[in-house]
Amino acid sequence: MDKNDKRTNTRRLLLRGAVAIGALSAARILTLPDTDTPKAPVGRNGAAHAAKPHPAAPAPPARGTLPVQAPDTYRLRPLAGEPSPWYPDTPPPHAEVAFTVPTRTREIALTFDDGPEPSFTPQVLRVLRSHDVRATFFVLGECAVAFPEQLHAIVGDGHIVANHSWTHPQFTTLAPGRVRSELGRTSDLIEKTLGSPPTLARAPYGDWDRASLRICNELGMSPVNWSIDSLDWTSPGADRIARNIMSEMKPGAIVLSHDGGGDRSQTVAALEWYLPRLLDEGYTPIRVEY
Predict the structure, then answer these.
(1) Per-residue pLDDT tens digits for 168-207
(2) Is the per-residue pLDDT at 45 higher than 70?
(3) Which stretches does the entry tag as region Disordered (predicted)?
(4) Across-strand partners of 108?
């Protein structure tokens, strides 16, 4: 395991007790009232709770420095419920966190976080391409600015590029201005690179609170989490990753995997195994679109 993988595992183990997604509930989404001041993170059961780091884990190392800066003024809108002023046909963002995709068939969504990067992102794209499957990539700004060609490769294959912050901080520990900077700066980069802003965002660790959800909506994005954690970030082996996914699979599932943040060779090997089997079982992977 390389240093990047150890760092990724440390930061995720730190927060797993507070923000891990448990068994998928019957409800698809979590509805939260709009407010300016709450501090507690929001769990999938709708209750506010305090983030409790794993007692044995050190504080997560900073992935980089990011000065607090306001995004361009046009990014302060739309507010939730308003159409996008720069893309009038874009529907207003959802205020609720999505854990599944709405479907009456065997549709599912494969999502990949923490990229792009020049080694494993192309390998994930190759596997998806070989099965004519589409997915959603939640990218980090600090990676996207280093490898813009990978953003073009993602959309060139018909996938969606979404926002995963700039440096992967825990939103519930940040002042609102810093959250806005993390999301706004990444959205600005994606739009500058690809020509249109992202309409979806995923908080690092899936850890939203009401303030960060409000900011996400104000920047024109709907929040998305997941219902199946592949646990590939723990490097348990390709077989274990595949079993984690297949054992929990059901229509509407959103699967969390990673194409960045460390050595993702196990993720690629698992994808090569489970994807054709999902297709054989009648599942149709789709992009997350709200």
Answers:
(1) 999 999 999 999 999 999 999 999 999 999 999 999 999 9
(2) no
(3) 33-64
(4) 285
Domain extent, residue 248, equals 1-14+106-290
Looking at the domain assignment, is residue 97 inside a domain?
no
In the chain, the amino acid numbered 49 is: H
Q: How many CB atoms are located within 10 Å of the residue 16 CB?
A: 18
Which active-site residues does the annotation give? 113, 258
| Structural domains of the chain, count | 1
- Say how far apart CA 229 and CA 183 lie, in whole Å: 23
* Cβ proximity of 259 and 124 under 8 Å: yes
Tell me, yes or no, whether 70 lies in a domain. Answer: no
